[in-house]
Amino acid sequence: MSVPLPLHRGEPPPAAADPMLSVGNIEVVYGRVALVLKGVSLTVPKGGIVALLGANGAGKTTTLKAISNLLRNDRGEVTKGTITFGGERIDAASPSDLVQRGCIQVMEGRHCFGHLTIAENLLAGAFTRRDGRAAVAADLERVYAYFPRLRERRNAQAGYASGGEQQMCAIGRAMMSKPKMILLDEPSMGLAPQIVEEIFEIVKTLNEREGVSFLVAEQNTNVALRYATYGYVLETGRVVMDGEAEALRQNEDVKEFYLGLADGGRRSFRDAKSYRRRKRWLA
Amino acid sequence: MAFVLEVLLGGLLSGVLYALVALGFVLIYKASGVLNFAQGSMVLLAGLAFVKAQAALAAIAPFWLAALGAFVFAAAIMVAVAWATQRFVLTPLLNQSQLSLFMATIGLAFVIDSLGQLVFGSEVYALDIGLPRDPVFLLDGVFDGGLLINGLDLWGAAIAAVLVVALVLFFHRTGTGLALRAAADDHAAAQSVGIPIAWIWFVVWTIAGLVALVAALLWGSKLGIQFSIAFLALKALPVLILGGFTSIPGAIVGGLLIGAGEKLAEVFLGPMLGGGIEYWFAYVVALSFLLVRPQGLFGERIIERV
């Protein structure tokens, strides 16, 4: 019988000694009316892979966009809380400023430049760099080394590439900006299980060899928790649980709601609470 | 035979001017998905600014220096228009529907038209940039008497060709060009890799403004600068439908086809239909193209993966 690993339910997570990214109690409002994030806090340690889990509409994408400051496109804004990256406040930094500092988002649905070739897509990722063509060309070779399939397809239009190739292209494009941290939104979306595994293997490799930290928003809890070191579970705009990936995987509620490992009618943490309350009341 | 060729060449060369105006549309449409209704007004404004500055400078400087100074002045005006458009029209309308942006450019057209005439006056001005106006005879040995071509048109064609080559090189050989094409493809993704959209808009409207300036100089040399130039925009629409809204070569080929088609139709079909074909021929061609090939000859097909 294994010793139960520590889990947190809503209370602030233990502060990492030297966090890459820390989000402190942020609220996000869309169109000035809809409160979507109701106080989300999370920390990504330097060189860590952290998973952000939760169902559709839980607020995963919103959290990532709040960090990368792409919310304005969706008429959203951060109304409360703080975001720091590498020790500096980045609440007001523009997306291009953030990319220059080393924090880049790979958006949900891949968003490759469809009419550009794969090679051009990758080069576009180096837009904010000012270290010269030779350095960019060298990094292009490095990206090709991680993604041999992109090298094969480098002169094809990205719009005609397969879903897996597009996801690789999007991650490779982000790598071209020389990031310290990648915000990866739903990398498994619409991909076959084998390809999903391949993508996560690459994430792990990039993390280990290039020292890039990852914050991965993912519905595929099973895969995400196998590759991540730490995880946060979001529900309707709140962090309801967080802990070491292994602890989350062993947790009965996570097993039931997100891993589908138990039967029963419970579908979310809200159901869980009422279920327990009623049971106590009957007893 | 010589006569047919002469009509054809004359048509092709006047088509160059349509192509130049259409080019301005294509640049902005590619980068922001907006059909810039104000492109014709930008041509008018650029022409007015050039003529007035040239007249003012002519008193104190030799001809070529005055022309050069006027060009710089008009270019600066176009840069200012690009900046103001980006700052006060496009950025506030970020993430609104394309139709809203299109409507905004209609408003912009009225503002530019009126401001231009308020500041620079609304008379008809002659414009002279020193291009030869004498007719030229080509292929003297092949045909009896050769082909009579307007020298100005030949220069116009050469300048347009240089401009197009320069633009294509800019878009395909520079980092900025790549960023412009990327932003044209996917705004949100461009932002996510750190390409600032406001800056992209400024660059693209500046280029469109400079293309408008070149168009104004060539049209103006031929017909003078007057208010009716603003309605050139309407002539560029069939060119775009024919060539495709997203293709620079398409704008050129479309312009040439419409120019040549118009003249040939006028000369050969005109007598049968009672003349005046030139004014509606382009629109009929565009209409039939919309039915058969809506993306135009060179337009990008929308890539849809199943």
Helix-strand layout with pairing:
The complex is a heterodimer of chains A (283) and B (306).
Chain A (H helix, E strand, L loop, with lengths): L6 E2 L10 E12 L3 E12 L3 E5 L6 H9 L7 E10 L2 E2 L5 H7 L1 E4 L11 H7 L8 H14 L1 H5 L10 H13 L5 E5 L7 H18 L2 E6 L2 H7 L2 E6 L2 E7 H6 L1 H6 L11 H14 L1
Parallel strand pairs in A: 4-9, 4-10, 7-8, 8-9
Antiparallel strand pairs in A: 1-11, 2-3, 2-5, 5-6, 10-11
Helix pairs in contact in A: 3-6
Chain B lengths: L1 H31 L6 H20 L4 H28 L7 H23 L14 E4 L8 E4 H23 L1 H11 L1 H6 L4 H27 L8 H12 L4 H26 L7 H12 L14
Antiparallel strand pairs in B: 1-2
Helix pairs in contact in B: 1-5, 1-6, 1-8, 1-9, 1-10, 2-3, 2-4, 2-8, 3-8, 5-6, 5-8, 9-10, 9-11
**Spatial strand arrangement across the major sheet of chain A:** 1-11-10-4-9-8-7
The number of domains of chain B is 1
pLDDT < 50 stretches of chain B: none
- Classify the fold: give the CATH topology of the domain at 16-110 and 178-250 in chain A: Rossmann fold
Instruction: Give me the CATH architecture of the domain at 16-110 and 178-250 in chain A, please.
Output: 3-Layer(aba) Sandwich
Stated plainly, the CATH topology of chain B is called ABC transporter involved in vitamin B12 uptake, BtuC
- State the helix count of chain B: 11
Mean pLDDT of chain B: 87
Q: Average pLDDT across residues of chain A? A: 87
Shape of chain B: globular
CA distance, first residue to last residue of chain A: 29 Å
Give the full name of the CATH homologous superfamily of the domain at 16-110 and 178-250 in chain A: P-loop containing nucleotide triphosphate hydrolases
Largest sheet of chain A: 7 strands, mixed
How many helical elements of chain A?
11
Which architecture of chain B would the CATH scheme give at its second level?
Answer: Orthogonal Bundle
Strand content of chain A: 25-35%
Amino-to-carboxy terminus distance of chain B = 52 Å
Largest sheet of chain B: 2 strands, antiparallel
- Summing up helix and strand content along with how strands pair, one would put the structural category of chain B as mainly alpha
Shape of chain A: globular
The total beta strand count of chain B reads 2
Subcellular location (chain B): Cell membrane
Main location (chain B): membrane
InterPro entries (chain B): ABC_transp_permease, BCAA_transport_permease
Family (chain B): Belongs to the binding-protein-dependent transport system permease family. LivHM subfamily.
